[in-house]
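The aim of this short unit is practical: by the end, you should be able to scan a pair of folded records and say something sensible about each. We start with the first protein, listed as its amino acid sequence and then its structure tokens.
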Amino acid sequence: MLDLSIIIVNYKTPKLILDCLASVSTHTSGIAFEVIVVDNQSEDDSQAIVQAAFPAVRWFDMGYNSGFARANNYGIKQAKSRNVLLLNSDTLLTDNVLARCVRVLDEQPDVAAVSVLQRGADGQLRPNLYTTFGQMRRAFYILPAGAFFQNWLQRIMPDPQYTDKNQAEWLSGAFLMTRPATIARVGGLDESFFMYGEDVEWGYRLGKQGRMLLLQDASFIHLEYGSSDSNQQHIVTHINRFKPQIQVSQLLWVRKQYGIGAYLVLILHYVVMIPIVYVWKIAVNLRDRRLPWADLGNQHAFTKQVGIFLRFFWRTLVNQPGFYKV
């Protein structure tokens, strides 16, 4: 049996996949692996480009843009190996990290899944990546900057303390290795998610089967946003931290993992924040001797975003299975 099935979801990123697979080929040794590419209706010549360079790649077409969870689940079903790796197309390996992770799963049966640190295109470690559920939940709340509010959030949504420095609560789906046997027990990625949040929810279920390890002495390069120009264009502000699709998925995750109460608290928080952000900006304008209604674009964008994820309110509230795509 093969040691590893590498599953890559493609959406119009053949060049990224070529670079990714070149790095896999260059730096991977000591294990037998296959590569499965699942295409989300790219409607281009991605397959011809990739298989011309890597003819052994197994290529599957979803027939529509199924998002991250459904495409990866399909790839997992095609896997012929004793381990599977979810790997983004916009990633590069710099050493034999795949064999290292396979060895971890082989030698530590109490480990449910393993990943490694992310580096940017410049090779520097990417800071402030979430590894606990508390970190993710605290980021949802729009409160004044400062230690008081951050400490308050930390108290009501604390992080777990582990003796193993490598242990985390969840791992990024950009690089996540686990076993088909583990997936058989917990189920695949939740297919209600289109993109984002599905790896967090999956991490919760995977974590019930064993430890989740984020190896602190191993890494890969994550270029990020290879198939989405809109992500690159998104301007992050204090009140507009996430794109609408990310926000919808995150709210769905909170509802699934923490229940109706936690979900309603977040929804109420965002609705109440609409007049607050306007009043705050108008007050700042008056203080600075400007017109009260000047530069309210950020506030308008926040209101629009709240309106977008409120369209999913009832479906999310009752945890209705579906396709939560903005």
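Turning to the second protein, read its sequence before its tokens, just as you did above.
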Amino acid sequence: MEIEQLKIIGTAHVSKKSIEEVKEIIRAEKPDVVAVELDIGRYQKLIKEKLGLKDDQQFSVKDLIRGENIGLFLITGLLTYLQNRIGDDLGVKPGSEMLAAIEAAEEIGARIALIDRDIRITMQRIIDSMSLREKLKFSFNILASFFKKDEIEDVESLKSEKTLEEVMEYFKDISPQAYHVLVDERDAYMAKKLLEIPEDKVIAVVGAGHKKGIEYYLQNPEKIPPFSELLSFKQQNSTLRKLLVIVPILLIVPFVLAFISGVNIQGDIFKFIFLTGGFAFIGSLAAGSKLKSALVAFLVAPMTVLHPLLAAGWFAGLMEAKMRNVSFHDLENLNKCGSFHELWCNNLFRVMLVVAGANLGCSIGTFLTIPQIILPMIGKIMGAG
């Protein structure tokens, strides 16, 4: 495809003016292809919503809770909520300009090209790439935005180069790694997808924040990373997985050695139970669980700490899901939450919070056992020897 025959429209995702602008340009230019900033999942979701169809995919709370994507689920849910809230404030549904581009393309008989990376891959790569400090800072800024009442008076100003640079710099400051994955990588991915389009005349509809980056990669295609690199999951979590195996061993060995050495460990066992179980209980309640779910977290936490393939949050979450009668309806409604109250009242989101809270509490309790129990116990063993 010749770059000269490509026109990129930078939009504000919740702008009424962008919707009209997209339609007018496509109808006037009559391109062979209309490329949109969507992946297949988001495209199908928009079309189903347009037709008033319900999603027929299977849903299992148990599989979701037992998966390794609790953080992915929560962050995606929070970001979706924020976008919906902005859209509600402006009276525009997120994704409306992409749907307008699709409809205009259908009117003139143009082919539709989906050029964005799968959102699940993007979100997982964000989580994998962020340091603990970045995750905490990122989460704090998301949560802080819940309580901000600032209104956007002129959404069109969001498309100006000066405003975009300020927004991007702010995002980059919060989390350089998240910015790289969410913006830089997707700019490169979408540019590569555009270069693969064989037709001569193409109009691309993307968020205004991506336009400059895409144009850069189109002019410097040799700097675009290969698809295999942009679509893979990073394996830096292997260290965490090793810890999940090593920690139980480090906890069990001192107890075994103390027992063999004749050291009285009855008090240490009770302290271990109350540290791990107590913090799992507190974490569960702090996440908004019901009392029964928190009690389940307390009871199972000491056992799950010693088993690398189990987590206290799973059991607390399953109890919470049972008590809240979570259904596929909750999953459907999650993307429609337009206020923090609606998000908080969503049963599935609440269950995921309980899972995360119980697991976090249990982890805190586990690491506190090292200075409180393990090190003193080692001292007793050496003294007995």
